[in-house]
What does this fold into?
Amino acid sequence: MKISYNWLKKYATTELPPSEVGKLLTGSGLEVEHIEPFESIKGGLIGLVVGEVKTCIKHPNADKLSLTTVDVGGEKILNIVCGAPNVAAGQKVVVATEGATLYPAEGEPFTIKKSKIRGEASEGMICAEDEIGLGSSHAGIMVLPPDTKIGLPASEYFQIYSDSVFEIGVTPNRADALSHFGVARDLVAAINIHSNSNVATLRLQGVLASAGWKAKQTNSNEILIRVENPEACKRYTGAEIRGIEVKESPQWLKNYLSAIGLRPINNIVDITNFVMFETGQPLHAFDADKIKGNRVVVRKAKPDETIITLDGTERKLKVEDLLICDEANAMCIAGVYGGKDSGVTESTKNIFLESACFDAVHIRRTARSHGLHTDASFRFERGTNVSATEYALIRAIDLMQEENSKIVVSKIQDVYPVKVEEGKLEFSLIYANKLAGHFIPAEKMAEIIEATGIRILEKGQDKWLLSIPTYRMDITCQADIVEEILRFYGYNNIPIPGKLAVPLVHSGQKKPDEIIGKISNFLSASGFSEIMNTSLSSSKFEENPGTVKIANPLSIDLDILRGTLLFNGLTNIALNQNNKRPDLKLYEFGRSYHKDTKGKYKEVEHLSLWICGNKSELNWNSKSMPVDIYTLKSKVCAIIEKLTGISDFTEIYLGDDPVFAMGTGLSMKSNEIVRFGLIRQNTIKDWEIKGDVFFAEFNWKVLLQQIPKGLEVKEINRFPAVTRDLALIIDKGTSFAMLKDIAGKAERELLQDVSVFDVYEGKGVETGKKSYALRFILQDETKTLSDKEIDRVMEKLTKAFTEKAGAIIRSA
It folds into this structure.
């Protein structure tokens, strides 16, 4: 949010320089990210002065150039070569002196230097309006009135406006600080709290409520207001203003708006924008003569209702959208965007001015569904002060009257069905000091609390009763008051204790963070890069009955808590691919969030892996090979074995899976530990990712439960292992996991491991069948195996495969 320093000083009486103001605001919680200088004309016309052309003759070496002498009020007359056709002796002109930097309307800035032009010295430049950014004309030099003072700085003559603009990162909870007056409140509090004497005061501008209002009022031709949905519109204040003149805004108003990045439009629109950025209360002006039936109706949209908005787009409305309508049609999407047919134009003579307080949830939902985000909706989505609607309305009328004293204003209508009172909150000093971790004197707490606008109604020995102003929607509990105290007391003033008492409890098990560190080191050493994503995701990627939706999302792209780590990782992959980094191995530790059928929420901890691209970079002695599911599986199995010491687990083929085109699940003791595989192309198409992506997601808590509690040491087997191979003809649909399970059940004592080293389909193998070559490792812990024992085991395995898998044993 941009805040003008000059504008801010209208409400906070201070002469502190911008840098000091920035430090105070940052220290009080309104972080000033940077301070930018602003000039109404870029460069501020520094180094440009008014001069008088004393002589003007033709250049001896160029027909279109003139030699002039110019008096700029200095010690000497300047010799300047000029190419303008209208230059003449006796003229008052704008002169750029040596060292001045010019910012033309088009092109790059340039600096004036002494030079020779066609053999003649030139010590400056007589300027046209486009050469200094004052306009677009290049027909000739600017000629000023004859009585203009020589040597007068051009910045003074053209009344260049200079300012400093703060870029403030306002946190979402601080809706009260989304205005110049809101920032001034914190600034005045900070100055007074941190100074030895109160040196700043807070000033409101213009009228207070209706007191002193000078506009002429009438009850005739009154437009009536009807609010049909008070749950969505807490308060609606409005008035009709007749006899306006839509014209260019005064310079002071254009300067303030331009400084914060707004383009001035006309006096009516500019005043409504000014009041919004002054008070934080959005306003909207309707052409009163276009309001049918002399009625303003606040209601929800009807089924299939549409509206053409200011940008000329016809939008289909949803029944939960709140509208401002007349008796016939919708005129405006409440709090979000104006309608095309009811807006103020140059021909408008009468307006209806709206100042309302809309429910934040309704506005947030509407703005998100239509993809419309305006300065007004930005404020309504975070909550506006219900008590400010009337003041903001009258403040705008007051400014309009300054421009046109002949305007006639109807009686103000204020539809306010349920008045919102200031909140009452009990505050414990003991709790405050405990939460702060430091003793803060009661007198200091009281000073800070009252400086922030909170009133102390009753003071007990330990407990106080506080009254919370309606503009502080973020203060709901004692902890919020402690935060207010600390941000002005200064977090840096909370001392670090000399010693920290930490209970030491020994556990035989490894700590979870140590295990995470161990696996992180392992993955990083294996070429993986760790990523850290937000827990927020978008409902357009994942939405189901178990999705956890955010009540107050600030972005349409971040409106749910993620149900899987997959999609944020795909965003990382797309970003890297777009930056020419296609070969990726990524991992992330994080949580997913779910809601069960009873409405209860749960969090699940995960370790997720992503791989895509090639296994390694192209090298002179090896070809680049793309990653595959076995590249990922090797790391998945290595992680499990590294933590549990177990390499024997159950594989479950994931058939019709919504995420994986080809996937597998691994289980231990009937608990699924991980799912991994190839992501479906229709899943990754939204990210425009090139190539295949393989993904694994561990249920981290279940995996940790498989870690043995104690350390088990086994002696290395002194007896040799024996390897035997077996070739099988099996049905095409038979999996290796099934064969491994059959082998394990057939021989439980001597069989140590089973692996597959060849798979073949084609010539010599019947259609619908495939050839599997399996390798078995046999070993006894007590003796060397004899040939008879080995043959007996192989016969058992052969029989088991034949009977349970329908296999045919291939001969060599």
The CA atoms of residues 523 and 635 lie 8 Å apart. DSSP finds 19 helices and 43 strands in the chain. Residues 787-805 form the longest helix (19 residues).
